[in-house]
Amino acid sequence: MNTTARLTPRTTILDERITMKYGAGGRAMRALIEGVFVAGAAEAPGDGIAIGLAAMDDGAAIRIGDRWLVVTTDSHVIHPVFFPGGDIGRLAVSGTVNDLAMMGATEVLALTCGVILEEGFALEDLRRIQASLAATCREAGTTVVTGDTKVMGRGELDGIVLNTTGIALTDRVVPDAGLRPGDRLLLTGTVGDHGMAVMASRHGLDFGGELRSDVAPLNGLIRLALAAGGADLVAMKDPTRGGLASALHEMATKSGVGILLDEAAVPVTSEVRAAAELLGIEPLHVANEGKAVIGVRPEAAGRVLAALRGHPLGRDATVIGTCLTELPGSVLLDTGFGRRLLAEPEGEPLPRIC
Amino acid sequence: MDSTGGFAELKFRDPQRGKALAAEAARLARAIGRDPIALMHVCGSHEQAIARFGLRASFPPEVDLIMGPGCPVCVTDQPEVDEAVALAMSGVRVATYGDMLRVPGTAQSLGDAQAEGARVDVVYSFSQAMDLARSTRDEVVFFATGFETTAVATAAAILDPDRPANLSILSAHKYILPAMEIVAEVPGTRIEGFLGAGHAATITGWGLFEPFARKYGRPVVIAGFEPLDILAALVKLLELVQDGRAEVANMYPRCVTKEGNRRAQEQLWRVFETTGGEWRGIAYVPDGNLRIREEFAAADARRRFAIDTSAQRSAAPAALVKECLCGAILSGLAAPHDCPLFGKECVPDRPVGACMVSSEGACKIWYQYGGRPDLTALPALQESAG
Q1: CB of A222 closer than 8 Å to CB of A292
Q2: How many CB atoms lie within 10 A of CB A54?
Q3: Which residues of chain A neighbour B56 with C-beta distances below 8 Å?
Q4: DSSP string, A325-349
């Protein structure tokens, strides 16, 4: 077959004004980062930066002696601030810790935390958020060492914005571009929980079951996977905004492989599936905040899977797909009935869920 | 919670039964011995399900299941959009479903009008339009689209004694049967049978299609929207084609009866009557549009306002529109990837034609689900995912 045909059209043209889709984690956001920030970036001061902005990875890696300093930053806006399974404080710590972990850096030295508050924000809510933030730091074995606080006028932002930056040292950096044909893709658990819980909570939808965000720091789980996989663990990505579909597309594109995804193997709770059916949203497009996609050489799949399943956050871990020579940059979905290409989400099903 | 096996647990989504049905369809197609065997569905929701589950890959290679005029938003023609735009530009608040916002009129879409300051509100249901009308003293017009299923909801709302007096309806509702007749009457048409839309048939009953099947000598099989519904209906349709039986079969009996929903039909025909109209890209369809009866003139935006669309119609259409194949796609003569604009100039963010606008539009669906590549040559999942 002709594998060079452009089967999934790519959007590269930027609009004159920023719309919500540019923050949704999909193609449009990548085009924006590439077209504005990467294209306009200053030159690197030395050759110590192994993974920089142009790599568009989860974070950057800078050579420090014989080790790597991994650094990442993430801003968090979410409505509602408190949602089933978490809150913006837990999200802010988990998001940054997970970005570091996806680079292979699981020993988080420290976080910074910048807070921008809207005039009128309740102090009690702020205390709750801080307590959650501190508890999540303990869970991840790190702490906030410096911060910044600003207040903006009423209506100038939606309640609270949290920015966290994290730093961690590691001996080996795991990029998200290390896949080759034959590699297996593991998923650490169910997908769609975070996005669906937030959407349901925001819109007051009651699906009769329990929808809870999966937001959690993954560095402990990833540490086990790295120990089991060693050099055979070759790529990692957390499927946040844009969901599993977006994460797999990014991995396929950066590694130049095709990905064959077995839809029936992707774990989805019955609650999430029911909500997704009702709302007409694909769980594969819904955000997660406590999951990872891990690419391994085929011979290591069994032992990494066993390691993941030994951790509470990896109980439902499973093999979801395989890397192909064919269709580089594309994700092929086997539905059990047939095959189709899994398109990358264009925007978010509903705005701002992480 | 079962997090691993839930996919197959859903009724009508058992891949094993799907494979058995696909094998039976393949056997029938071979037995018929023609290639291609052209069949048509007339429902955007069928195309959604077919694309979503990659069903085309499991159809017999001889079967060419063509998308017919099954997307009500897509077949809403420019003059109807022009009316809505003219109303919005004249200061009336226009409420409509999100899909309608970007459907191109002659010169402008409702979205364009909104950008120029006209008040256009996106609603998810008629009742939301009622709430909007109650919250304002302005005139509110609900720009209503859809086939029988949604037309029934509009009819019920028009009959609702609590409907606010400042709310009227601009009907772009369509009636599917006359459009199927147009397709069947095309000289030299290749279509050998139809899959009927399950949800429309829930209202009309499957009996409605019997005179059609007899008159045009083509079988109609009413189909639901789960993968097994569609595969089972395809098998039935191939059986009828093989036997040369121009009959109606109901393969969606859990929802559809022969008589349909009598009460809904009464409401529908009490409020609406059929009238002829242009369907985008298809033709003039006699009796294809639903207009509000005179008895309900107060609820009919066309009678309530003198709608002047001359400003819209005098404007020149955009150059790209001339290359758009929406018309051919809607009438089953072309597929989205035959269009030079598909996925290039025409994407969901910047649609050129209506088929890229609606979530039921063939182009939008194909774009969303990655088109129809030939995926049969790839390694089997079992071999590679092990």
Answers
A1: yes
A2: 14
A3: 338
A4: SSSTT-EEEE-SS-EEE-PPPSS-S
pLDDT at B373 over 60: no
Question: Which chain B residues are Cβ-neighbours of A270 within 8 angstroms?
Answer: 1-2, 6, 9
- What are the φ/ψ torsions at residue A230 (nearest 5 degrees)? 55, -135
Taking the Cβ of residue B258 and every Cβ of chain A, the question of whether any pair is shorter than 8 Å is answered with no
Q: Tell whether B324 and B306 lie within a shared domain.
A: no
What tokens appear for A18 in the block? 């920023």
- B54/A319 touch (CB, cutoff 8 Å), yes or no: no
Structure tokens at B89: 């530009």
User: How far from A92 is each of A26, A164, A217, A253, CA to CA, in Å?
Assistant: 20, 6, 10, 28
- Per-residue pLDDT tens digits for B185-244: 877 788 999 999 998 999 999 999 999 999 999 999 999 999 999 999 999 999 999 999
The listed CATH number (2.60.40.3500, 3.40.50.300, 3.20.20.70, 3.30.1330.10) that belongs to domain A60-170: 3.30.1330.10
Residue A202: CB atoms within 10 Å: 16
Distance between CA atoms of residues B336 and A309, nearest Å: 44
Q: Could you name the CATH architecture of A184-341?
A: Alpha-Beta Complex (3.90)
**pTM for this model (two decimals):** 0.79
ipTM: 0.70
Whether residue B231 is contained in a domain is answered as yes
Considering the domain architecture, whether residues B244 and B362 belong to the same structural domain is answered as: no
Query: Do A335 and B363 form a contact (C-beta atoms < 8 A)?
Result: no
Alpha carbons A178 and A250: distance in angstroms, whole number? 12
Tell me how far apart the alpha carbons of residues A119 and A108 are, in angstroms, rounded to a whole number: 33
B22-45 pLDDT per residue, tens: 999 999 999 999 988 999 999 888
> Which of B 185-244 lie inside 8 A of A, CB atoms?
227, 231
